[in-house]
Write a structure and sequence with these properties.
By secondary structure, this protein is of the alpha/beta class. Helix content is about 40%, strand content about 15%. It has 2 domains: about 190 residues, Aldehyde Dehydrogenase, Chain A, domain 1 (3-Layer(aba) Sandwich); about 130 residues, 3-Layer(aba) Sandwich (Aldehyde Dehydrogenase, Chain A, domain 2). It contains 12 helices and 11 strands. It comes from Formosa algae.
C-alpha cells in the first residue's frame, strides 16, 4: 500500500464522517459502503453517549465535524508534503489513548497508519466505541489496512515504539515502563488566555467556546486567564452568557455545586455567575466550572514567564500578544500539522 492509497482511504473516511457532523444526522447517497456502516455508526454514537455522560450529542457532533473537515485529500497532502516516506520500514507502534474528549487519540492513530506503520491501540474505557468502528470502515475502503490495526485490552506486548498519553503520574510510569523503546510520552497540559481589556464582544464570546467546549475537559480548553491589574470582569461574564445552558447538564451542575461549596467553606475569594466561577490562582489546571486568573503588570514580563512554562501549556490564546498565539475561538479546531505538545509525531514515526 503506497502513501496515496493511505491518503485516499482517510479522505473517504472524512466523507463518511461528514454525514454525522451536524445536529441532523443525514445519510448521503454517494458515500462508499454506507449501507454497511451508516446505521452501525449511529448506534455507536448512541453507545458512546450512554457510556460517558460527558460525550453529549453536541460534543460528539463537534468532534466529528472537525475530523470530517480535516480528512480531505488536499488537507492531508498539504500536511504530509514536507516529509519523505521513501525509506519507511513498517514497525508496530503502540498507542495508549486518553478518553477525556471524543476521539482524542485519533490524530496519533492517523499519524501511525499514514506513515506506513502497523498500529496497536489500547483505548481508554471512557472512549471505546467510536474508533474500532471507524477502523473497520477504513479496512473496507482500503483492504490493505487489514492486519495493520489491532485493538487490545490487556498488557501491551510485541511493539517497536509507543505513543502514550496520560496524567503526570501515569507519565512517570510510562517513562519507566517504556524506557527501552522509542516513545512520545504526553503529560498534563492546560491552555491559557491573555486578555488586555481591549477585546471585542466577539473576541470574548469566541473565548467562551475555548473555555466551555467539551465542558473544559480537553488540554486545549482555556483553564487560566492572565488579565491586567484592575481588569473589569463584567464584559467577560457578559460574553460567557452564550454558554449559560451548560448548567442544565447534571454532571456539569454537580461539579459546579461541589466546587462552589468547597470554595465557600474554605472562604476563598471568587466570582460566579450561576454557571461559571473565576478564582485568582497561580495554578494552570482549574476544576470543572472554574477558571483561574492571575494579574500581570507588564506584557513582556508575562511573555517571558509563559515561555518559561511552555512545557505546561498546550495553547496560548491572545490577540497580537505572542507570536505562537491562537486566535480566540480556535483552540478546539487544530490543523493536522498542529501537534500536541509541539512534538512532531510524523517526524518521530519516520525515524523509528
Amino acid at each position: 500500500m503506497n502513501l496515496q492509497q493511505r491518503i485516499n482511504a482517510f479522505a473517504k473516511l472524512g466523507d463518511f464522517l461528514s454525514q454525522f457532523s451536524n445536529e441532523k444526522i443525514q445519510k448521503k447517497d454517494d458515500i462508499l459502503f454506507n449501507d454497511l456502516f451508516f446505521d452501525g455508526f449511529k448506534h455507536q454514537l448512541k453507545l458512546a453517549r450512554e457510556h460517558n455522560g460527558w460525550f453529549n450529542q453536541d460534543n460528539l457532533v463537534f468532534a466529528l465535524d472537525g475530523w470530517s473537515k480535516s480528512l480531505t485529500t488536499n488537507n492531508i497532502t498539504h500536511w504530509l508534503n514536507t516529509y519523505s516516506f521513501n525509506n519507511v520500514t513498517s514497525k508496530k507502534v503502540a498507542i495508549i489513548m486518553a478518553g477525556n474528549i471524543p476521539l482524542v487519540g485519533f490524530h496519533d492513530f492517523l499519524s501511525v497508519l499514514i506513515s506506513g506503520h502497523d498500529v496497536v491501540v489500547k483505548q481508554s474505557s471512557n472512549d471505546k466505541h467510536l474508533l474500532p468502528f471507524l477502523a473497520k470502515y477504513l479496512e473496507h475502503v482500503e483492504p490493505e489496512f487489514k492486519g495493520k490495526i489491532t485493538f487490545i485490552e490487556d498488557k501491551l506486548k510485541d511493539f517497536d515504539a509507543v505513543i502514550a498519553t496520560g496524567s503526570d503520574n501515569t507519565a512517570r510510569y510510562f517513562e519507566y515502563y517504556f524506557k527501552n523503546k522509542p516513545s512520545i510520552i504526553r503529560k498534563n497540559r492546560n491552555s491559557v488566555a491573555v486578555l488586555t481589556g481591549k477585546e471585542t464582544t466577539e473576541d470574548l464570546e469566541a473565548l467562551a467556546d475555548d473555555i466551555f467546549r467539551y465542558y473544559g475537559l480537553g488540554c486545549r480548553n482555556v483553564s487560566k486567564l492572565y488579565v491586567p491589574e484592575g481588569y473589569d470582569f463584567q464584559d467577560f461574564f457578559q460574553a460567557m452568557y452564550k454558554w449559560k445552558d451548560v448548567i442544565n447538564d447534571h454532571k456539569y451542575a454537580n461539579n459546579y455545586d461541589y466546587n462552589k461549596a468547597v470554595y465557600l467553606m474554605s472562604e476563598f475569594d471568587m466570582l460566579e455567575n450561576g454557571f461559571l466561577m473565576i478564582k485568582e490562582d497561580q495554578s494552570f489546571s482549574s476544576p470543572i466550572a472554574t477558571i483561574f486568573y492571575e494579574y500581570y503588570n507588564d506584557v513582556n514580563t508575562l511573555k517571558n514567564d509563559l515561555f518559561s512554562k511552555k512545557s505546561d501549556i498546550q495553547c496560548v490564546v491572545s490577540k497580537g500578544i505572542i507570536d505562537y498565539e491562537i486566535v480566540f475561538g480556535n483552540t478546539q479546531s487544530p490543523n493536522l500539522w498542529n501537534y500536541a505538545d509541539n512534538v512532531d509525531t510524523v517526524d518521530f514515526l519516520l525515524k523509528i
